[in-house]
């Protein structure tokens, strides 16, 4: 009985400490955390945390920053925080600046952006923000597919397209346990990390086609996957973290040939 009382006291102390450490408006996820445990420690519901952080699932990751309070955050007219669905083009247009200026002011080398990033929209560098990660999806072909956040826009090719459609896009990487990194059409993605390749349903997009993808650019339809059916594609991104952060998006594509 004495041992049980001591154990319960220790648990109570740990719970109290966890609640105190999680009392701030933002919370950094630690190993072993769940949305339920975080919600209990902050006297909120799981649904509230999901709503405040635009989470579509209950999967979270260590070092991910979550809002645990519904209080509005003060916003500066000189900075902008990326939300789901944003593109560099949309942000630039909304603030009367060019995409080039936005990229230059924020030290961007590509057009991939993620919810939670804070950008300067007035010519001064903004403090970097940790991008939210999200749930991994089903595997695609010989590579590892992931789901999570939001990419950006890009100008469509001027040439006429054979077909245009709107699809659901996820991203994958060539590195995972048991993966060869070689696509269904024989492209070695590990040897060619800069190659733009998408996994497709061959019944919808013929293998070998050139396809322009909003926010990704022109790619080769060079891979397939068990989870890629119908109007769904998987984009190859060499960095596993970038692939994880890309997430699930609805994008426009153009089949060029």
Structure described in brief:
Keywords: Signal. The chain has 257 residues and is an alpha+beta fold.
Report on this structure.
- It comes from Jeotgalibacillus terrae.
- This is LysM peptidoglycan-binding domain-containing protein.
- Keywords: Signal.
- InterPro entries: 3D_dom (IPR010611), LysM (IPR018392), LysM_dom_sf (IPR036779), Resuscitation_pf_RpfB (IPR051933), RlpA-like_sf (IPR036908).
- With 257 residues, the chain is an alpha+beta fold.
- The chain is 21% helix and 20% strand.
- The strands form three sheets. A six-stranded mixed barrel has the order 6-10-7-9-8-11. Strands 1-2 form a two-stranded antiparallel sheet. The chain has a two-stranded antiparallel ribbon with strand order 3-4.
- A hairpin with a 3-residue loop joins β8 and β9.
- α2 packs across α3 and α4 packs across α5.
- It starts with a helix and ends with a strand.
Q: Give the % helix.
A: 10-25%
Average residue pLDDT:
74
Enumerate the spans where pLDDT stays under 50 for 5 or more consecutive residues: 1-23, 72-76, 125-141, 146-153
Q: What is the distance, rounded to the nearest whole angstrom, between the alpha carbons of the first and last residues? A: 76 Å
At CATH level 2, the architecture of the largest domain is Beta Barrel
Rg measurement, Å: 21 Å
Fraction of residues in β-strands: 15-25%
Shape: globular
Reported by name, the CATH topology of the largest domain is Barwin-like endoglucanases
DSSP strand tally: 11
Count of structural domains: 3
